[in-house]
Specification:
This protein has a 7-stranded mixed beta sheet, sandwiched between helices. It folds into 2 domains: 251 residues, Aspartate Aminotransferase, domain 2, CATH 3.40.640; 132 residues, Alpha-Beta Complex (Aspartate Aminotransferase, domain 1), CATH 3.90.1150.10. It is built from 16 helices and 12 strands. Helix content is 40%, strand content 15%. The chain is an alpha/beta fold. The radius of gyration is 21 Å and the shape is globular. The protein starts with 5 loop residues before the first helix and ends with a helix. Helix 8 links the parallel strand 4 and strand 5.
Length: 392
């Protein structure tokens, strides 16, 4: 489906109407698949011929989702996982070779991604190095050692909306014979396709924009087939972080409307960000679609309009003031989700990033007065009125 437009791929890629039947892919809930013969069983289990064995590895519903996501991202293959963090973990296991290996990452990370790096991966003997000025290529280069195996960046980042120069990082990675991994959850392939900019692997929490409806937990990693399929047969097969077929089916439902939802979400977020940027009760607003954003030019170059549906803003008075604003919201819901059809707001310093030491949070652009605000499909006038009331 390489010649079709994005919107068309979102509806058709990966599904054979004639072969599978039905206008929409069915849910395959079976956990095992019978073989025609002993020889067929041997060949399918060895990967010498196509077929299904056990649902922990893959099932027909997940296969449709994987092929569709690979088509949308411009990758050769995809592996669907139980969560976005599972996708990150498997990707890293596929890139690190032995204890003592290192990787370089921006310090602008989702809180539990950093926890995975600091706790789980350190326990396994792997060493992350953090770039405190990720907008500077020299700061990345300074962290690379002979034990470095890859670069990892989240763009835009959660919740401060740092936007990475993916093309520049890909060039740096190639110069040092390294791989580049991009967490593109906050953009989605409707806005940013890192593989086309030189990245080697892109990961997603499909729970967010791809599913859209806050009802299906999942993750995915997309890249070259010779990277993805050994992961499926290896670490994924042994650890078992498999996306359920039902969640894959729900995610396919969400993807059908992705190309329609994202422009509406971004347009509304732009209006909300512009309102907050001119409000004297707000200390600062971070949104890549605003000309005041430090990486606005890069965001426009890589992401079209420059924005996504997520923004963050800071109020004076720290945690207590942020809590008061959140508790006064009547349209937006206070929850730890983002990228959903409903507008959702949360206080990162005490929730999503609450386990991080205060100095680490501050260095990552998360002061105590920061509110993360994910714009949904509500009328933007209602959202602005709701914020105006909450800030009063």
């Amino acid at each position: 489906m390489g010649d079709l437009h994005f919107d068309t791929k979102a509806l058709h890629a990966g599904y054979d109407y004639a072969g599978d039947g039905g206008l929409f892919p069915p849910i395959h809930m079976g956990v095992a698949y019978p073989f025609d013969s002993g020889e067929a069983a041997q060949q399918i289990c060895a990967g010498e011929r196509p077929g299904y064995t056990y649902a922990r590895t893959i099932n027909p519903t997940n296969a449709v989702l994987e092929e569709r996501l690979a088509a949308l991202e411009g990758g050769e293959a995809c592996l669907a996982t139980a969560s976005g963090l599972a996708a990150i973990f498997l990707t890293i296991l596929g890139l690190l070779e032995e204890p003592g290996d290192e990787f370089v990452t921006s310090n602008r990370l989702y809180g539990n991604t950093r926890n995975q790096f600091e706790i789980s991966l350190r326990l396994m003997g792997f060493e992350p190095h953090y770039v405190d000025r990720p907008e500077e290529m020299g700061a990345w280069a300074a962290q690379i050692t002979p034990r470095t195996r890859f670069l990892f960046v989240e763009t835009p980042s959660n919740p401060d909306l740092f936007v990475a120069d993916v093309t520049g990082l890909a060039r740096l990675a190639r110069a040092h014979d390294l791989k580049l991994v991009v967490d593109s959850t906050l953009a989605s392939p409707a806005v940013l396709r890192p593989l086309g900019l030189g990245a080697d692997v892109v990961v997603h929490s499909t729970t967010k924009y791809l599913a859209g409806h806050s009802a299906a937990l999942g993750g995915a990693l997309i890249g070259r087939r010779d990277f993805v399929e050994p992961l499926r047969a290896g670490h994924h097969h042994y650890i078992g972080p498999t996306m359920s077929a039902f969640n894959a089916w729900l995610t396919l439902l969400g993807i059908e409307t992705l190309a329609v939802r994202m422009p509406r979400l971004i347009s509304s977020a732009q209006r909300v960000a512009e309102f907050l940027a001119t409000d004297p009760r707000v200390l600062a607003v971070s949104f890549p679609g605003l000309p005041s954003h430090p990486q606005h030019a890069i965001a426009r170059e890589q992401m079209g309009g420059g924005g996504t549906s997520l923004l963050s803003f800071e109020v004076q008075g720290g945690t207590q003031a942020a809590w008061r604003v959140l508790e006064r919201l009547q349209v937006a819901v206070q929850a730890t989700q983002l990228g959903s059809n409903q507008t959702v707001a949360v206080h990162p310093a005490t929730t999503t990033h609450g386990s991080l030491p205060p100095d680490v949070r501050l260095s990552a652009g998360i002061p105590d007065g920061l509110i993360r605000y994910s714009v949904g499909l509500e009328d933007p006038d209602d959202l602005i009125a709701d914020l105006d009331h909450a800030l009063a």
